[in-house]
Amino acid sequence: MPELKLLDAGNAPAVLAFELANRAYFAASISDRGDEFFDQFTDRHSALLAEQEAGICAFYVLVAEDGSVLGRFNLYDLEDGTARLGYRVAQHVAGRGVATATVRELCRLAAARHGLRTLRAATSRENVASQKVLTKAGFVPVGPAEPADLGGKPGTWYQRDLAVQS
User: How open is the CA angle 148-134-70, to the nearest 5 degrees?
Assistant: First the structure.
């Protein structure tokens, strides 16, 4: 059974392997991270851990029994009871309900562990799979997302009140 865990220094090799293995798959629906992301991965991973330690963000990885990363589920800009949600799952588990179940679990953790009341997530108009995940996890559309919010693509902001369970 996969486990949702807070990102730590020991996750770095598995996270990098996940990002590399799924790079082309992710680039089909969201902006590619670019070669610089991979070239500077160790420094970026350390910076994420520092942000998490400071309480600015909370980064989670969905880890399979074999230690491989199946997905990343992140809470950004934790402030005043709200945060932004971002996530990505491996191509080989996409379409199996993994993202929806894990977003639901993260909503529970966001309230219980991080004291959040509201989560927001933006998705591009073309990313129908992500729209379905958000809707199934109890998010509702709340307005347009600017291309600057989505790596140059227009889209929609979704929001979920964490007091409402789904």
Answer: 90
